[in-house]
Amino acid sequence: MIFNKDTAQKTAELLLQINAIKLNPKNPFTWASGWKSPIYCDNRITLSFPPIRNYIREEFSKNLEKQFGKPDVIAGVATGAIGIGMLVAEYMGLPFVYVRPEPKKHGRQNQIEGFLQKGQNVVVIEDLISTGNSSLLAVEALREAGANVKGMAAIFTYGFDVSVENFKKANIDLFTLSNYENLLELAVAKKYITEEEQETLKIWSKSPSTWNVESDNATVK
Questions:
Q1: 130-188 pLDDT, tens per residue?
Q2: How far is the C-alpha of 160 from the C-alpha of 208, rounded, in Å?
Q3: Using one digit for the tens of pLDDT, what is the confidence trace for 122-146?
Q4: What family does the database annotate (predicted)?
């Protein structure tokens, strides 16, 4: 669920402007999972543009408090959301922790880095939601550490059915600054893509794991 329509449209336009999101239906990308995709999203690029990262930080901060109340701690999902999560925590004057995909193999073998007490209310920051699996592993780790996870907020989601189901099963509310639906709407309006390309992108989103196009592919990791 998006925080609001205006934020969703503006965020989508900013991500397209700096090529954090690339749309290429005629020459699709190959994701690390092996999926063929006409879209690629790398929201870490936003950290290199101060006005945009500040906009994202401030939109997160004001909307988090509206939806979840002011938490005790902000948690970022490693590695993509460490930077923006820390900016949000700093702006809100809150402690920050980040969550690894799995515990370290050495030292204290931490999965959660930073100071977290049992019973603290935590909001999790993520940069991108695809299936939601890796994001929800972070939620599971926080819950196992005794945290009260109030919800998760992400910059962007593809809105796949599988992710919606995964968050429902985990009983976690997810809010995003923008999503796939608003991205396509904005991309057509601003002529980043044609209406025909928009239809291709809509078809892909319904079955991304099986979608394929006979063309040379740009491989990304």
A1: 999 999 999 999 999 999 999 999 999 999 999 999 999 999 999 999 999 999 999 99
A2: 8
A3: 999 999 999 999 999 999 999 999 9
A4: Belongs to the purine/pyrimidine phosphoribosyltransferase family. PyrE subfamily.
134 is known to lie in a ligand binding site? yes
Q: According to the annotation, is 163 in a ligand binding site?
A: no
Residue ranges and CATH numbers for the domains of the chain are 5-214 (3.40.50.2020)
Taking alpha carbons only, the member of 152, 127, 131, 156 closest to residue 9 is 156
| 146 marked as part of a ligand binding site | no
Question: Does 104 count as an annotated binding residue?
Answer: yes
Interior CA angle at 130 toward 66 and 87, to 5°? 45
- Tell me if 5 is assigned to a ligand binding site: no
